[in-house]
């Protein structure tokens, strides 16, 4: 099959999967979307197909040819029906602990990390939430139409096992029931500031480089930080409104981390399902969807973003240097004096935390992913399958396991 036909077939299949996901939610979707005639003043279509879903009109996302490493994931949120985990487990699941056990196991098989802590907090309108890995994301469950939400943070995307995108795509398209991508953030880094900056973004906004249609009023823009007399703390420019299904931000990433002289700039595009239908193949082609977000992005279509190793290395360098500078500025005089008074060895012993394993919150992202720090929920206890009609003993075992898990987490929190 020619490459062009294969690409068209795959796009058609992905569109069908997206529509099927919406159909499974109980709404009516036309078989073919309406043509979207509006174009921007560059003569290219940056407005997706409009699909009616009940009383709502959702817009599909646009793609454009770009460097395969143009963008990377910085946040991902997905909901699936709880019965999805009946398929991945060894039988029917009943209790909350059973669903979380299985969701933890599935997440480890996809991302390389599972549930490590029970937060016992309401989150995203769900009754309860659990932490994934070392601050790598969350699982939310309870009270939302029998769905379970998987949230992978930017730190989680950075530390996920290689190939997680394809594994997650397979899970959503082949196993999950009623899967919906509710939020997806894509990012691009210019670490040298060679072609990307907040000033560049503001200039392109004035030239209507963020308008997807020809004519019309300029999209909303906001500036954060000291733009008239920059202090080195960093500036941010946002395009669009946060409540909309597409929102963009540019910010001085290096300065945010603490390097006042850094030219590192990051561009992020946030897609949400409130008025967008986010296709599953965004997991396979994030760069294409990032490139298709705005007309002005065509200026760096073929620039590769900094890769994971480079990002983690530079982030660690800036964070450590910044933390050392803060320590010196706030306590340098005390340290100089007490070195003479106590000596280096005695001073370190006296000034160090009593908890030798303690890690400052600011340094935790630097150490994240360097080995497994905690045991995963599904590794502590394996719940037995409950068959109410045949055996009541497993119910007692699961309840005991549940109490033991709660005791474990209570002890781990001190």
UniProtKB/TrEMBL annotation:
Record keywords, A-Z: Initiation factor, Protein biosynthesis
Residues annotated as domain Replication initiation protein-like C-terminal: 180-343
GO molecular function, one term: translation initiation factor activity
Entry keyword Protein biosynthesis: yes
One Pfam entry name: Rep_trans
Name the UniProt record assigns to this protein: Replication initiation factor domain-containing protein
Natural source organism: Undibacterium oligocarboniphilum
